[in-house]
Structures are given as C-alpha cells and as structure tokens.
C-alpha cells in the first residue's frame, strides 16, 4: 500500500494522513500473525531535504497464537510510529510504501512469548487438553531431573 506524496514536493512541507486500510497480504516473516479487520493510521509526514519523516499512531487488532496453549487470541495494539524514510532508498519520491513500516513496527511491538492471559495454564503434555478449559485425567509427574537421579541412586542401594 502506498501513500501518494505528489502534493508534498516542497521541502519543509508537511501533511496529515488519516487512513483505515486493510492489509490482507502482509507477511510477518515466520511469525503467525493476522490482522483483524483494518489498520488505523494517523500520520503526519514531513518533507525534509533527504527524507520523509513519518510520525503518528498505528492502531490495529492482532490475532496471535498463545505460546503456551496454542490458542488464537485477539490483542489490540496502539503504537507510536516514528520513521525516517530516506529519499535515496525510495523507488519513487511521490509514493511512500507503507507495508514495511507497518510490519516492522508490529513485529517490534510483539512479546517474545505471546500469552492469551498471564496465567494461561497451557496444554497437557500427555493428552493435549487445553488446561484452561478443564483438567484432564493424566497424571503428569513433574520430577526435577536431578532429584530423579538421586532417587535412582537410593533405589539401587536398597
Ligand atoms: Zn494460552
Ligand atoms: Zn492430559
């Protein structure tokens, strides 16, 4: 998606852009992210001599996968955007390419381990039951491997 800058040729000029855009095709490298509905952008763009400075706010609702229970959940975001797009790196000085700006800012805002909730119980390693939705009947023994070694040692010597 591009913003037309043909009316922003003058150095020192600025303009405000409010946009609500759908980005169905954004690629987030190998992250499993979807954008629900649209992205709301309120931007101010300045023409400096060598670059366009893009400042403003990005709002969207992301669909992320919980790293513990693997369930999809919705996560609203509101990000401050501050970018300096060098004219020398633009294909065309009359068009500002937005996709990279949006993808970079969203990826930077993501938690390392997304969680559907702080106290997500995750899934049972035996049967795969989502433990947020109910207990399963598995008896999962969580034994510290060091203690397990000790136990073996004592059992062998009895
Ligand atoms: Zn979860
Ligand atoms: Zn289970």
Features:
2 domains; 37% strand; binds zinc ion; 158 residues; ribonucleoprotein; four-stranded antiparallel β-sheet; two-stranded antiparallel ribbon; COG1399 protein, clustered with ribosomal protein L32p; alpha+beta; YceD; ribosomal protein
Walk me through this protein's architecture.
With 158 residues, this protein is α+β, with helices and mostly antiparallel strands. The protein folds into two domains: 2-118, no CATH class; 121-158, no CATH class. Helices cover 15% and strands 37% of the residues. It is built from two helices and six strands; from the N terminus they run ββββββαα. It has helices at residues 99-109, 145-157; strands at residues 2-4, 14-21, 34-47, 51-65, 72-86, 95-97. The strands form two sheets. A four-stranded antiparallel β-sheet has the order 2-3-4-5, covered by helices on one side. A two-stranded antiparallel sheet has the order 1-6. The longest helix is centred in the C-terminal third of the chain and has 13 residues, at 145-157. The chain is elongated, with a radius of gyration of 24 Å. One zinc ion (ZN) is lined by residues 66, 68-69, 71, 115-116, 120. One zinc ion binds at residues 66, 68-69, 71, 115-116, 120. Keywords: Ribonucleoprotein, Ribosomal protein. One of its GO terms (cellular component) is ribosome. Pfam families: YceD. InterPro entries: YceD.
């Amino acid at each position: 998606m591009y913003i037309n800058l043909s009316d922003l040729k003058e150095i020192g000029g600025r303009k405000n852009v409010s946009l609500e855009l759908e980005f169905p095709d954004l690629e987030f490298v190998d992250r499993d992210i979807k954008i629900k509905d649209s992205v709301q952008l309120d931007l101010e763009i300045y023409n400096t001599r060598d670059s366009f400075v893009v400042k403003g706010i990005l709002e969207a609702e992301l669909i992320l996968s919980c790293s513990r229970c693997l369930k999809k959940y919705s996560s609203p975001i509101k990000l401050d955007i501050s970018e300096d797009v060098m004219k020398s790196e633009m294909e065309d000085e009359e068009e500002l390419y937005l996709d990279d700006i949006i993808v970079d800012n969203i990826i930077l805002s993501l938690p390392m381990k997304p969680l559907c909730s702080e106290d997500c119980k995750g899934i049972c390693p035996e049967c795969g039951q989502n433990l947020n939705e109910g207990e399963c009947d598995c008896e999962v023994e969580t034994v510290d491997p060091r203690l397990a070694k000790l136990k073996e040692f004592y059992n062998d010597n009895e």
